[in-house]
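#help-structures

NK: newbie question. if I give both the sequence and a SMILES, will the prediction place the ligand too? trying with adenosine-5'-triphosphate
OV: yes, paste both and it writes out the complex. here, I ran yours:
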Amino acid sequence: MELTAKDMEIRIGKKDIVKNVSILVKKQQFVGLIGPNGCGKSTLLKSIYKSLVPQKGMVFLDDLDVLKTSEKKISQRLGVVGQFNEMNFDLTVQQMVMLGRTPHKKMLESDKQEDFEIVEEALTTTNLLDYKNRGFLSLSGGEKQRVILARTIAQQPKFMILDEPTNHLDIRYQIEILSCVKGLNIGVLAALHDLEMAAHYCDYLYAIKDGEVYAHGTPEEVLTSDTIQALYQIKCQTYTNPVTNGLSFAYGI
Ligand SMILES: Nc1ncnc2c1ncn2[C@@H]1O[C@H](COP(=O)(O)OP(=O)(O)OP(=O)(O)O)[C@@H](O)[C@H]1O
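OV: that's the protein plus ligand as structure tokens.
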């Protein structure tokens, strides 16, 4: 699915948080949102996945007008991995991941064999099979993050939005999660802080500064020393990592 967010404007109180931002994610593209803390990435994502109503703007998933469509219909297509995933009641990991099947069920419909198979597969993909019967609340931050991803995978979305999905994760799981999301071969829009990960996994990037698109293009086009310096107010030199051959960065204040 293709995602188009056009002319998005979000004001909270008297502050303009997102100013006239347009984003396009083509079919099966992995698009990253980068930018400093507080620049408006989460706010923009929330307005795209309907957790926040924008003052202005349109959001389409292919021909579907997201802002005018019911939650249920949207969640049959769109999966979201948000930044904070705390909850107060304890479900097992399997029950949590089963919640991903809810948008595909009628009211009070029970779990079918197919649902259990899909959940099992999502647990396998996220390396969580051994945690199946553990209480969600007993898990570490990184394990919880993986459960939320498994729940989103079980939802079988055609498009995924992730807000800093690798928060809490050690390097191995950062790589595993991003590889796993990339391997789904669906359109993805993800806010990412790690620029090397963004360079490696993203097909296209939008750099946000003060609520506006400061630059957009391929990682090579966007992740230049000048842009990174302007975005984060730091010194930065880019280089090709001799081991990975990927884009790398040396930072300083
Ligand atoms: N409910 C709110 N009330 C007041 N200000 C808010 C609210 N939500 C967000 N903001 C402000 O909007 C700005 C953008 O926040 P947002 O969370 O979108 O940034 P971000 O780019 O995702 O940052 P981070 O990288 O730290 O997650 C911040 O200055 C934040 O304090």
